[in-house]
Amino acid sequence: MANAISKTAYYTLACRDADAHKPRPLCGDTFAARFMNDEARRIWSRFQSFTRANTSNAGRHQIIDALVQEELDRAPQARVVVLGAGFDTRAYRLRGGQWLEVDEPAIITHKDAQLPVTEAKNQLERLAIDFQAESLADRLAPYRDAKRTHLIIEGVLMYLTHAQRRDMLAVLRELFPQHAVYCDLMRASFQRDHGGELHKAIAELGTTFRDLTDTPEALFLEAGYTQASVTSIPLRTMELAGQRVPAFMIRRLLPSVRDGYRIFKFERS
Questions:
Q1: InterPro entries in the record, alphabetically (predicted)?
Q2: Which candidate, 134, 133, 182, places its Cα nearest to that of 155?
């Protein structure tokens, strides 16, 4: 059932499930357990030892949660599109939003079976797309909206080529003229210096990071976006976990860690 990318979705799912069972969870995704099956547990067994990366996955999710919730508190009926949604459950956890989850048919089918849209506390639709064979522009065309839209692209961009990222942004600008993008961007130096073993394990699942650079935000800035905010994933994760000493070290002494992997919010209007 799982292709290479959905295997990484199982990994990030398992990170959130493990986080939810901690005494002090970072993102508290209690719905993650609904999707944990034998495949998810098998993949988790291969990554369980990557404690810092696993915790950062939960921290990454919470950072985006907070940014999106801040917007939904101001505009509860806003459209939120989650591209490459994986096992995202924000439509069940956050307050407000008209949600659209977009991903491969196998993931959508599994999600529909284990966590139906009728259980969501917000309006939720799921859209299945074969990213290799179907046009994102064509599939999203019925959802074209001139009103401000929020686009979550989490754990996706590092698996795309530069050309694929550029083409995706062109589609989003055409369909949603006014929007905000929430995404994680990793520097090539961070992956090289701090993520080698994790990336090796990810590669064993059949996928790999592509076209990483030390200025990943340049793609957005060159496309006319404005950088609205940037948050260090390692630093904010330590702060959320109440680990003051590691947070201090990352903030003051380890700029390559602090700035190597971050959540960006970009505005386009």
A1: Ppm1/Ppm2/Tcmp (IPR007213), SAM-dependent_MTases_sf (IPR029063)
A2: 182
